[in-house]
Amino acid sequence: MRLAELFEPQKPTPKKRKTDTVAEVFIIESLELVDETKERREGAVLASVLKMCGKNPLYYYIRTKKELEHIADEFEASGYRYLHISCHGGDTSLETTLDSVSYQEFAKIFEKKLKDRRLFVSACSAGNEMFAELVGSKNDDVISIAAPATQIRFDHAVAFWTSFYVKTFSLNSKSMNSGRIIDVAKPLAALFSAPLHFSKRMKGAWAHEVING
After folding, report:
1. Domains in the chain: how many in total?
2. pTM (two decimals)
3. What is the CATH number of the domain that holds 200?
4. pLDDT tens-digit profile of 79-110?
5. Cα 127 to Cα 140: distance, rounded to the nearest angstrom
6. Domain assignment present for 124
7. Are 149 and 115 in contact (CB under 8 A)?
8. CA dist list (Å): 28 to 60, 71, 105, 129, 201
9. What are the Cα distances from residue 166, in Å, to 41, 125, 157, 161?
10. Domain containing 138: what range?
11. How far, in Å, CA of 51 to CA of 81, rounded?
12. CA dihedral over 32, 169, 13, 138, signed as positive or negative
C-alpha cells in the first residue's frame, strides 16, 4: 500500500441491514514517533495484505485518546465485525502516540460498541484476563478478545497477524469461529514464540486460554 493511499477516502463494505455486521477488518493503529519515522506500521501492512486477499479493510492512524474516541464511533457505525488494534501496550494500558489509555478507559471508549464483534489487539502483554474482563464488562455481546500474552517483536507481530488473517479468511471469507481461530493461531504462536491470550463468551461467562502452539 502506498503511503498516499492511507489518506484517500475509504468506502466501507455496506451492510444489508442496519443491525448486520460484515466480515471485514477495521484497523486502528497508533505507534511511537520513532516507529513513524522508521515506517514501522503493522496495521498499514495488514491493510495492504487484506486488500490482496480481496477484502475491504478500513485503516485509521491516530495519535491521541481523543481521536480514538472518535474512531470508535466510526467503527461502530461501519458494522465491521473484526476490530484490529495495533499499538504499544503493557499490563495495565494501551498506548497511543501521545496518550496512555488505561484498560478501564479503553473499555469505556468502546462501551456497547462491540456487540457481535471480535476484538484483536496487537499490543505487547495486552493478552490477559483483566483486559478481557474489563472490555467484556462494558460489552455483554462481544464474541471474543485476542491479544499477545507477552512481549512480541515488531517483525514477528506483522508476520503473525498477516498470516493469521490470510489463513483464516482462506478457510472461510464470510465468518470466523472460536475453534478456527485457535486452530490457526496455534502453529503461528509456536513459530514466532508468541503466546496468544484468547477469551470467549461461554454461557454468559468468560473462558480464557493461552494459545502456545
Report:
1. 1
2. 0.92
3. 3.40.50.1460
4. 999 999 999 999 999 999 999 999 999 999 99
5. 19
6. yes
7. no
8. 5, 8, 16, 22, 24
9. 18, 23, 14, 8
10. 20-211
11. 16
12. negative
